[in-house]
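Archive record:
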Amino acid sequence: MVIDSRVFIGITIILIISGSLLVSGQGTCQGDIQGLMKECAVYVQRPGPKINPSAACCGVVKRSDIGCACSRITASVQKIIDMDKVVHVTAFCGKPLAHGSKCGSYVVP
């Protein structure tokens, strides 16, 4: 059985983030973390070009607490996603990350 690489990456990110949420004991973030991974993973994955996200991705971004999600991004997740693309997606969707804020260990320029 062949699995589309986007599906594999999305599932991997969901498992990593879900695991970090459970281990941290800090609860969950407001919004749809699984939806973010399902709809937006293809726009933030390594490698590949920076492209504008879909309306479905933006819909999930707008309903989510991106700052909270950023606070739970681990080094393992950062190996899979491109943080510059995360900044692009959130800005394109109308929820830009503040300059100087942290998303994982990445500092937003």
Summary: The domain at 5-107 is CATH 1.10.110.10 (Hydrophobic Seed Protein).
